[in-house]
Write a structure and sequence with these properties.
The complex is a heterodimer of chains A (233) and B (553). With 233 residues, chain A is mostly helical. Chain A has eight helices and no strands. Residues 1-10 of chain B have low confidence and may be disordered. Classes of the chains: A mainly alpha (233), B mainly alpha (553). Chain A binds chain B through residues 5, 7-8, 18-20, 26, 29-30, 33-34, 37-38, 40-42, 44-49, 51-52, 55-56, 59, 137-140, 162-163, 165-166, 169-170, 173, and chain B through 12, 108-110, 112-114, 116, 175, 178-180, 182-183, 186-188, 213-218, 220-222, 225, 228-229, 232-236, 241-244, 247, 251, 517-519, 522.
Chain lengths: 233, 553
């Protein structure tokens, strides 16, 4: 980068225009396409786990029916509302950036970050409650007598199906992988907040805000599938 | 701008000299340098996998095994397969040659996402290092397919964990390369370059990108599940905890069958370029070749079950998978016939890349047709897990992909290095590769039909003749490859300086200097149909080809 190559060096290049693009418009278009392609890949990444879910549920419906009673649908519903709210603020942040509303942008980014934090706190509560009561994945599934009491009477009367741990393996894998994505999203929103504070974004340049919001919507959508699949069996 | 087009790199500073020192390479965002770094690593992987292969072949010299213990044999064939598949064949053409060529062919300064490109390189490097780690940590004897329950039992040590992580990282690298290429081909083209002006190599990499983006994440989640299953006994794949080992096979082949098209489609792209340029005739059936790449990518997703005909699938599932598998033959044959029609009445120039491509035709023909025996149910069941299968996939993955890789390497070598390789040595190496390859693998077809099972360290004495032929063939093949390496490396020191367009090709990479400047083109190149040779004339061997009149810049 020391010596600018001769012949290039147009008078006033936009500060965030990468050297290999001709215009901000084509840079935005390209970033969008790349992000969508990456998100398609993400969907397939989760797709493997959704397939595992479908296979095990089709082969062992009794197991799913039994095991889901240990999940609290109220917490799941709360988290669904929280994430949908965060998607709204994420979409809002894009609009603010496009309109050049800097305070609005920072507020929307902050709200998204905080709601993501709320989601993780609820998730943490759920996980620690499960693990405290011996509801672990696979071979680590050893429910305490106390938690077994919480089952409906009809289920307590019959012997538990075998390999309940597989249900919880799938539960922890899918919600865990989703949780990792939420954490990554929180990191991205922190980064956006820092850049928004510096005043990087405006009507001329809002690629990162837009792309992170796209990612965030996918993370949100995956949860919208996870919630009924696990909590509302 | 007057007549500079056919003059060797003199005007600007080549990308090789733009910035000096190790840092300028390791932190580069230049697709050309990243391509070269990939090239060094994939050739290293090819060499490592090749050494494993030679030890295997020497071991099989005698029925009881001549060289290593049975245990070591199992580890060697596993690592041979895994290193070749994950570290050489899959990234070989797209990541190494593709990275160098794609932006040049669309007339762009770089790929769409240069930072992602560098990240992809380091993910690949990390994956490769983990494989080396697996080797050091006692190796791996599961076969490259890593089937549970065996692969995930407690007795498998650190090796399997390192290998699974390595596959995960290499896969992630492959996804990012696919994203980058598709975005580049869509968005970085100059306004006047239509979809059907593109070189067919780009169509091939586009189709490859679709597979990389959609299939690879499934492999990623599969190896992640395997990793966690091995550590925590999830009960997803291991039957004793309630898991389903056949589910692993479905997951694995949902990626790994489309992955063979990640390997062969870029190879076919190279063939389309070379066959047209060295027949001095526009490619025949452009749209059919382009669309058949897409068709192969799409159909390729629907055939994975043919790896599991004897894994306990229902009969109807088998029939449907068998039918869909045979469908792949149609777009493959469309390509082959169009290539042959391109050569028909062309002025064929038998330079090294073209000889490799002719090798490709012969070998891909046999490899493709023997695939039909394995796709058809009735013949697959007796041939399953015999040397027939080994020979078939080596015909396609080595015979076809490696020869196309070598064709592409020789074809673009002048562009990458600015030097011409030694034509005589190149031809000798191509001939030896052809002879050695066939001598190695044709006996394996015969042994397989006679019932020799794959993956054993020992074999029945009746197969000794076939195995010895095969081992001699492998040595000839290795000699051919070493001569190719000698010729290419030697050209860096002794080679004649390459002109911008040594072959008389019309695609845009040849409008850049050899080697190109940092920004690829000193001025935007004139866009033409990639196979429009009208007006291209040979000025001299030293000055290469140029468009008559020297206009259009």
């Amino acid at each position: 980068m020391s010596a600018p190559s001769p012949g290039s060096a147009p008078a006033a290049r936009a500060p965030f225009l990468a050297p290999h693009f001709g215009s901000m418009g084509s840079q935005l278009d390209t970033a969008k396409l790349g992000t969508w392609l990456f998100l398609a890949s993400e969907v397939l990444f989760f797709g493997g786990l959704f397939t595992a879910y479908a296979v095990f549920r089709a082969n062992h419906p009794d197991l799913f029916h039994y095991a889901h009673h240990f999940l609290d649908w109220r917490l799941g519903a709360l988290n669904t509302v929280v994430l949908i709210g965060s998607s709204l603020s994420a979409a809002w942040s894009v609009r603010c950036a496009q309109l050049g509303q800097r305070r609005g942008l920072r507020a929307a980014l902050l709200v998204t970050l905080l709601l993501a934090g709320v989601f993780m706190v609820v998730k943490y509560t759920e996980y620690s409650h499960k693990l405290h009561h011996g509801i672990g994945w696979g071979a680590a599934y050893h429910p305490t007598a106390e938690i077994l009491e919480s089952l409906p009477a009809a289920l307590r009367a019959v012997p538990a199906p075998e390999h309940l741990g597989t249900f919880y393996s799938i539960y922890f894998l899918m919600t865990g992988l989703h949780g990792i994505h939420v954490l990554v999203g929180m990191g991205l929103y922190l980064w956006l907040l820092r850049r928004a504070g510096r005043g990087d974004f405006g009507p001329g340049y809002y690629v990162p805000v837009d792309m992170v919001a796209l990612y965030w919507h996918i993370v949100d959508m995956i949860w919208i599938f996870l919630f009924p699949l696990f909590y509302l069996v | 701008m007057s007549t500079a087009q056919a003059v060797p790199a003199a005007a600007g500073e080549s990308y090789l000299h733009h910035g000096r020192g190790v840092r300028s390479w390791l932190l580069t965002l230049d697709h050309k340098r990243i391509g070269i770094m990939y090239l060094v690593l994939v050739i290293g992987a090819l060499f490592l996998g090749g050494v494993f292969a030679m030890v295997l072949r020497l071991h099989l010299w005698s029925p009881g095994g001549a060289l290593v213990s049975n245990d070591a044999y199992n580890k060697l064939f596993t690592l041979h397969g895994a290193v070749m598949v994950f570290l050489f064949v899959i990234p070989g053409i797209p990541s190494a040659l593709g990275n160098f060529v794609v932006p040049l062919q669309v007339g762009a300064k770089d790929v769409a996402f240069p930072r992602v490109n560098l990240l992809s390189f380091y993910l690949y490097l990390a994956g490769a290092l983990l494989f080396v780690g697996a080797l050091v940590a006692g190796g791996l004897d599961t076969g490259w397919t890593l089937y549970p329950p065996y692969s995930l039992e407690d007795a498998r040590g650190l090796g399997i964990l390192l290998a699974l992580t390595g596959v995960f990282l290499a896969g992630f690298s492959s996804i990012l390369t696919g994203v980058n290429f598709i975005a580049t081909i869509h968005k970085m083209r100059p306004p006047r370059m239509g979809w059907f002006d593109l070189p067919l190599f780009l169509w091939a990499l586009y189709a490859t990108g679709i597979i990389q983006i959609i299939a690879t994440p499934v492999l990623g989640i599969t190896v992640a599940l395997g990793f966690l299953e091995r550590l925590f006994h999830l009960g997803i794949f291991l039957p004793e905890y309630g898991g389903d080992p056949v589910l692993f096979q479905h997951f694995f082949w949902f990626y790994s069958h489309p992955a063979v098209y990640i390997m062969i489609l870029p190879a076919m792209g190279i063939v389309s370029e070379v066959v047209s340029v060295f027949s001095r005739k526009p490619i025949f059936g452009y749209r059919f070749i382009a669309m058949s790449s897409i068709a192969i990518a799409v159909i390729g997703f629907l055939v994975w079950g043919h790896h599991m005909f004897v894994s306990g699938q229902s009969r109807w599932t088998n029939v449907i998978f068998s039918f869909l598998t045979l469908l792949v033959a149609i777009p493959s044959a469309i390509k082959t016939f169009n290539w042959l029609a391109t050569m028909y009445k062309g002025a064929i120039v038998l330079k090294t890349p073209m000889i490799y491509v002719l090798t490709f035709f012969a070998i891909f023909g046999v490899g493709g047709l023997t695939g039909l025996f394995l796709g058809a149910l009735a013949t697959d069941v007796p041939l399953h897990d015999t040397y027939f299968v080994v020979a078939h996939f080596h015909f396609v993955m080595v015979g076809a992909v490696v020869t196309a890789f070598l064709a592409g390497l020789h074809y673009w070598w002048p562009k990458m290095t600015g030097r011409m390789y030694d034509e005589r040595l190149g031809r000798i190496s191509a001939a030896l590769v052809f002879l050695g390859f066939n001598l190695t693998f044709i006996p394996q077809f015969l042994a397989g039909v006679a019932g020799m099972p794959r993956r054993y360290a020992t074999y029945a004495a009746a197969f000794q003749g076939m195995n010895r032929l095969s081992t001699v063939g492998a040595m000839v093949l290795a000699l051919g490859m070493l001569i190719a390496a000698w010729s290419l490396l030697g050209s860096l020191f002794r080679g004649r300086r390459a002109p911008a367009n040594p072959w008389g090709a019309a695609s845009l990479e040849w409008a850049a200097a050899s080697p190109p400047v940092h920004d690829n083109f000193e001025s935007p190149p004139a866009v033409v149909y990639a196979y429009d040779y009208s007006g291209l004339e040979l000025i001299s061997e030293e000055a290469g080809w140029a468009r008559a009149g020297g206009t259009s810049r």
